[in-house]
Amino acid sequence: MVQEILRRVHIPAVAQERLRETRLRMFIVQSRMGTTSAALAATFLGLLVAPSVGVGRFALWLMLLGVGFAVRGWVVRRLARRDTHNERDERWVTYSTVALALVVGMPAPMFMPQLDAELRALCTTVQVCWVVAGALILGLYWRAYQAYVGISFSLIAAGWILSAHWEIALPMTLLLLAASMVLVRFAQRLATMFEESVKIRYANEVLVGELTQALQDTEQAQQARSRFLAAASHDLLQPVHALMLLVGVLKDQRTPEAVEQTTRRLETTAGTVAAMFRGLFDQARLDAGAVAPQLTRVGVSALLRSIEDSNAPRCAAKGLALQVSCEPHLVVWADAGLLDRAVRNLVDNAIKYTPQGEVEVRAWGDEQRVHILVRDTGIGISQADQKLVCDPFFRGQEAKRSGVDGVGLGLAVAQQMVGLMDGTLALTSSCPGGTRITVSLQRALDGALVAEVPQPASPEQPALTGRRLLVVEDDVKVREALVLWLKGQGCQVCDAGCLADLLARCDPAHQAPDLVLSDQRLEPGPDGLTVIARLRERWPDLPAVLVSGESLSAEEVPEDVFFLQKPVSTPALLMVLKTMLDKGEEDERSDRIGGAPSPG
Questions:
Q1: Has residue 448 been placed in a domain?
Q2: Helix 237-252 and helix 166-235: axis angle, to 10°?
Q3: Which of 17, 135, 253, 501 is most buried, taking the most CB atoms under 10 A from its CB?
Q4: Is 22 in contact with 79 (CB distance < 8 Å)?
């Protein structure tokens, strides 16, 4: 059982240090007790042998014994004064033990030749008991005890040999040899059991510590979940409530201008809900450790141009000046997607919390780092809130009073994403006066391939008139809305909730579809990737777009399948569909050219 526990629990070097410390402490305590026992044994031995060998001879041995115990006492006091111990201290234990063994075994060759048989037997008994009792003091250092037993028993055997009683000396020597082997084995086993007990105690402490930490982590997770529910129950329901009210307003509108104005408000509110859920999803992935950045060379100018293009209409509608500037040829080591999301979060916050004035996005670099500044003239963040503003689900007092919807994740997600890219995020703010946030990342040398940040879809892109699309979505409301939008773009749509229904509706005799758009999680199955694979058995070159609320890694999605994560805006979806359809046409033309017969 002990060995099984030790195999399951890793014992680091600190456990070895604790073992050494505990063993030395035990030796110090036992040595002090052993001194008293040794004095009693020496007194008893003196009463036995002093009349036969003479007081002077016995006094000489007693003086040597005192020196031996004084040396060990000095070693014990030296060890007791030290707070920590090392291997050299354990060697001192061995040295003092060898010296003491010489003194303890010395009465045999000194006294036995002058003693009669009965006194020799009593002297031998006292010395053997003395050595056996030494196991209680030195047993934890079994190698030192091995030397102690070997020296002591060798001197006892020498005493019998010097007594010239060979008929007894030889059997006694063999008996002492056997006894020494038993005692050393006992000491070795005692040391092993002691070592295992110390390690098990340490392992238990480690396990208790890990359990305590796990309980604390669980409690923190519960507290975070409670904070989320407290925030989400209000902050998420607010824009949903606004959506329901706007739908009622839209039904009552009679003029095109009023319908257009209400529609814009609906679109803005829906975007707020989507941003909230996107922030929650990002935070969940970060908490789960599911975000693995792929660092590459990213051009900062293209990133800021993309952000400017997508936010300029929003700033213009709010009456804000958006100023974007970037030093030429700035390239950073970053994950293009994470950097884009982090900076967009910062710009989004700046626009949301700036009632009037301007928002500035500026990038510059030095020899080692590239810095991206997002500055606004908005409501600012109080000094007290700045310490907590990057914590998940925290919203400052100014943000709550502003009336802007949110769940307090924009800065938290941005800071964690920047940290995953070995960057830093610094914040300064005054209330009022605005906020300055600077993201700093490692600069990359110029002259190599640079990852492009995805560009938003242009509103002038043509509709998908005449395209034949297959749609697989098990949620009826989502499928109805998607089909309604696709038909509004001029598509011919065949939709179903699962693969079996889709195959039943699609007539193989009809013309091949141009693209399949499928959700990943379908009830009943199979999932979206399987649906795409099965459809490509019938139409091998069928372009495919996979949509899911889950996060799928690049290894899970084939290269020829475009993956979109919900929620998806209609401009983004339109851009992806157009891109995949154009790519499918290019591949088809290439196949026709490559398969055409050569002239002549």
A1: no
A2: 20
A3: 135
A4: no
Strand pairing class (468-472; 561-565):
unpaired
Compute the residue count for the chain: 600
Tokens of 593: 């050219």
- 156 alpha-carbon distance from chain centroid: 63
* 81 found inside a domain: yes
When comparing pLDDT for 119 and 272, which is higher? Answer: 119
285, 542, 583, 587, 590 from 596: Cα distances, Å = 49, 21, 20, 14, 10
- Using CB atoms within 10 Å of the CB of residue 276, give its burial: 0 to 12 exposed, 13 to 18 middle, 19+ buried: buried
Enumerate the β-bridge partners of residue 439. Answer: 372, 425
Residue that wins the pLDDT comparison between 556 and 515: 515
Q: What is the number of helices (H) and of strands (E) in the chain? A: 20, 12
Name 132's Cβ contacts closer than 8 Å, sequence gap at least 6: 183
Fill in the amino acid letter for 224: A
Note the pLDDT of residue 14: 62
Compute, in degrees rounded to 10, the torsion defined by CA atoms 566, 571, 573, 577.
-170
Question: CA 100, CA 134: separation in Å to the nearest integer?
Answer: 11
- Considering the domain architecture, whether residues 21 and 122 belong to the same structural domain is answered as yes
Of 519, 336, 354, residue with least CA distance to 437: 354
Structural domain of 402 = 296-442
CATH number of the domain that 300 lies in? 3.30.565.10
Q: Does a cis peptide bond (omega within 30 degrees of 0) precede residue 293?
A: no
Query: Between 36 and 126, whose confidence is greater?
Result: 126
Taking alpha carbons only, the member of 475, 391, 379 closest to residue 432 is 379
Please list, in sequence order, all residues whose beta carbon lies within 8 angstroms of the beta carbon of residue 281, skipping any fewer than 6 positions away: 549, 551, 565
